[in-house]
């Protein structure tokens, strides 16, 4: 039995992969605990994971603006909390969210073995970390050096959005090794006769979220197919008006909803987009946040021919026309199905757990 500590933050898209990997390790008999924000406690405890909230960050509320995210990523208080946890109860490996660069820097300086968990496509993150390094350096925080020492950099994603994938190398947890684990949510091929159009946007209340929801709901009016909208907790049902025939839910697990879907309309969040594609379902992306990975995900699905992109302020008529065209595009659906089959070949949680076990045993 090995001892693991996950260090994370309340980022929405990083919750599913963190829980999936931590649970896989627990199920394999390891000792696992999680350090995160108090706003995450309910979700992690519901997954039967031992959870401790950061003492230095009570009452956490995410500020998704660039300045707020930078303060979070370089927060030395979170690093001090992690060190205090390790002093009280040492572990073999600390698995750190890729964006918490202050935590990674401190662990690297104290020669604590750690892994990095990335929750979007690796190629998207690399340029961002180069830019972050220049900013963090002014605060005395290193970015590149800790990443080069990570054993390994574990990517909760796939190598690319085109099938087939490059041949998989043998698992390794050597310093700086990049390992693609795969999708972290259960997925099956969507039913061949599936017809439902699923509308699902961010769990964070971005400034344009409510207005975008209304435009998308207006676009759904008159579509000759079942339509389901999952609003999430960021939008109250009374804030938007759904046309007759649209089924509005607060939330529904992807693996229960997507097998019946023929098209997903979303904001380009990595988790939702990859879950849709894992089911072989094409996606229409309207990126909400230009500073995140959402525009990159939108370009990637478009270039791969498994989805299309519209600007976030696209009107109902343009959205409706695109939905109808995509529903009729047999080649689009065939490419999405081929990609879904390739994604489902990677058992993400199992691969992630295996490589973290290798990290304890020496890396190879």
What does this structure look like?
The protein has 364 residues and is α/β, with parallel strands linked by helices. It has 2 domains: 3-182 and 346-361, Rossmann fold; 196-344, Rossmann fold. It is 41% helix and 15% strand. It has helices at residues 15-27, 41-46, 66-73, 76-88, 101-109, 122-137, 144-149, 209-220, 254-257, 270-278, 294-303, 316-328, 330-344, 348-361, and strands at 3-7, 31-36, 50-53, 93-97, 114-118, 153-155, 178-180, 196-200, 227-230, 246-249, 261-266, 283-285, 307-309. Strand 8, helix 8 and strand 9 form a beta-alpha-beta unit. It starts with a strand and ends with a helix. 48% of the residues are buried. The mean pLDDT is 94.
Features:
364 residues, 14 helices, 13 strands, 6-stranded parallel beta sheet, alpha/beta, 2 domains, Rossmann fold, 41% helix, 7-stranded parallel beta sheet
Helix content: 40-55%
Order of helices and strands: EHEHEHHEHEHHEEEHEEHEHEHEHHH
Q: Report the CATH C-level class of the largest domain.
A: Alpha Beta
- Globally, the shape reads globular
Mean pLDDT figure: 94
Which topology of the largest domain does CATH recognise?
Rossmann fold
Structural class estimated from helices and strands: alpha/beta
What is the number of beta strands? 13
What's the name of the CATH homologous superfamily of the largest domain? Glycogen Phosphorylase B
């Amino acid at each position: 039995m090995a001892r693991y500590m996950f260090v994370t933050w309340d980022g929405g898209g990083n919750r599913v992969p963190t829980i999936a990997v931590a649970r896989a390790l627990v199920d394999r008999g390891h000792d696992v605990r999680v350090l995160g924000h108090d706003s995450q406690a309910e979700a992690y405890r519901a997954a039967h994971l031992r959870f401790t909230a950061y003492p230095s960050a009570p009452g956490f509320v995410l500020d998704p603006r660039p300045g707020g995210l930078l303060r979070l990523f370089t927060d030395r208080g979170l690093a001090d909390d992690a060190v205090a946890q390790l002093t009280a109860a040492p572990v073999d490996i600390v698995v750190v969210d890729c964006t918490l660069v202050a935590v990674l820097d401190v662990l690297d300086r104290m020669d604590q073995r750690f892994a990095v968990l990335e929750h979007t496509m690796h190629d998207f993150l690399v340029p961002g970390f180069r830019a972050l390094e220049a900013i963090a350096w002014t605060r005395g925080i290193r970015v590149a050096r800790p990443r080069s020492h990570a054993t390994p950099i574990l990517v909760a994603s796939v190598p690319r959005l085109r099938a087939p994938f490059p041949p998989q190398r043998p698992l390794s947890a050597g310093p700086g090794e990049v390992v693609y684990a795969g999708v972290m949510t259960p997925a099956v091929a969507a039913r061949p006769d599936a017809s439902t159009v699923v509308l699902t946007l961010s769990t964070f209340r971005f400034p344009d979220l409510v207005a975008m929801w209304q435009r998308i709901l207006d676009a759904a009016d008159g579509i000759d197919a079942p339509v389901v909208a999952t609003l999430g907790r960021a939008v109250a049902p009374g804030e938007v008006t759904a046309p007759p025939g649209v089924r509005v839910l607060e939330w529904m697990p992807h693996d229960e909803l997507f097998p019946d879907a023929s098209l997903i309309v979303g904001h380009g969040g990595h988790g939702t987009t990859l879950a849709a594609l894992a089911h072989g379902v094409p996606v229409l992306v309207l990126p909400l946040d230009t500073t995140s990975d959402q525009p990159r995900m939108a370009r990637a699905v478009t270039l791969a021919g498994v989805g299309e992109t519209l600007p976030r302020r696209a009107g109902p008529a343009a959205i409706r026309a695109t939905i109808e065209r995509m529903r009729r595009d047999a080649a689009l659906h065939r490419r999405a199905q081929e990609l879904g089959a390739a994604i489902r070949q990677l058992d993400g949680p199992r691969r992630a757990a295996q490589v973290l076990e290798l990290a304890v045993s020496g890396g190879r």
